[in-house]
Structure formats: C-alpha cells, structure tokens
Write a structure and sequence with these properties.
Largest sheet: 3 strands, antiparallel
Length: 73
Amino acid sequence: MRARGTFLDWMLQDRPKLGATVRYVGTCQICSEFCVDTPTADEAREWCLWHVDATGHIYYELTATEYLDAVLD
C-alpha cells in the first residue's frame, strides 16, 4: 500500500521482527475476559471454546491485529 504525501512517498510493510505479523485475540462479550494474543485464529477460537466450557458464556469476539511499519519508499 502506498500513499503520496506532500513531499515524501510512504509505504507500509510488515514487521517481521515480531514473528507473526497478524495476532489474534478471543474476547468474551459477557465478562470481557480475553486470551493472550495468539499467532493463529484457531488458537484464539480454542480459548473461546475453553471459556464457554468453564463459564457457559456464549458470546465472543475474535479480533485480528496486523503490525505494520511506515517507511519511506
């Protein structure tokens, strides 16, 4: 993705130093408890299933966060 500023050309790139550039978090919509961020959506979903078994709470949100750096092109 590129954007043109007034004087500089910027570009967004992944942050490979973090390992996975997309991290996932499962959050219970009833009690707001959440899992630590995970490298895969499946791991966050597993936490949601563990939490429903432990609490009976049935509403969840899965959030993906992508980490990027803005660099001059």
